[in-house]
Amino acid sequence: MYDQSTALLSEVMGGNIHLGYWRSDEDHAPVEQATDTLTDMVAERLALTPGLRVLDIGCGSGKPAVRIAGLHDVHVTGVTISAQQAAVAGARPEAGENSGQAAFRQADGMDLPFADVTFDRIYAIESFLHMSDRAKAIAEAARVLRPGGVLVTANPYQQGELNAREAEIVAANRRLFRIPPLGDADDYVAHMDKAGLEVVEVLDIGENVRRSHALAAAAVRQARGTFDDAFAEQLSEAADIIERFGAVPQIGYGIIVARKP
Fold it and tell me: Does position 154 have pLDDT exceeding 80, yes or no?
């Protein structure tokens, strides 16, 4: 799924493959700026200082990693389950092994190939969302995080009960993006607590990211003309699912910050 969707999603979302953040209804920032803003909100909560070693779990296109590395003079290691994503990210001209650069490799976020207490900071933008065992993934992050380090996650989740129609919309989106049950913010907090992390902030920004879905759907519809009829029809169905999912009021989005004692 990642191999097939990364190029299109990256084009739709301004080089990133995560949602964007708009400060208000009057904020008319382009989608690339909005997705970079969300990256910056995550980076701000990492409390970065030059020279730190940072892990990006689920690095996607690699754009967040190189942005964070360059702006904060840290080294970011990005991992992704997708060999294609790792190759695309690794081909970025900003990639490298020095502070201010990012390096990328294929790896499973639920079984990280790093020694204990390797990284000063860790972040995961819309990647724990996709993992079949989120408790294991968060425990792995806690294992490779140094004492005093910070983990920041950003993920959509569900808030409250769904009626039958809303439940089918959410189920369709989960099938489209191969997502396990969404869970809620309390689930993520519980996983972090079990992993020995101390949660210090839970910030819901669901209304600030919600327009991302409609914009993504519109861009996907616009892209249909470049594909054959069969795939164009699949894209049309996908756009409808994405737009309906974004309109479900119980779909929230949280940035969660935890520290390792």
Answer: yes
| Residue range 231-261, pLDDT digits in tens | 778 888 989 999 999 999 999 999 999 999 9
CA dist., res. 237 & res. 95, Å (int): 36
Of 138, 116, 129, whose CA–CA distance to 199 is shortest?
138
As beta bridge partners, residue 157 has 252
d(CA 60, CA 19) in angstroms, rounded, equals: 13
C-alpha 62/C-alpha 90 separation (Å) is 8
Q: Check: CB of residue 84 under 8 Å from CB of residue 65.
A: no
Q: Which residues contact 41 (CB under 8 A, 6 or more apart)?
A: 21, 154, 205, 255
Catalogue all structural domains in the chain, each as residue range(s) with its CATH number: 2-155+181-207+251-259 (3.40.50.150)
Taking the model in full, what pTM does it have?
Answer: 0.94
**How many C-alpha atoms does 23 have within 13 Å on its Cβ side?**
8
Instruction: With both helix axes pointing from N to C terminus, report the angle between 63-72 and 31-46 in degrees, rounded to the nearest 10.
Output: 60
Is the pLDDT confidence value at 21 over 80? Answer: yes
- What is the distance between the alpha carbons of residues 99 and 218, in angstroms, rounded to a whole number? 38
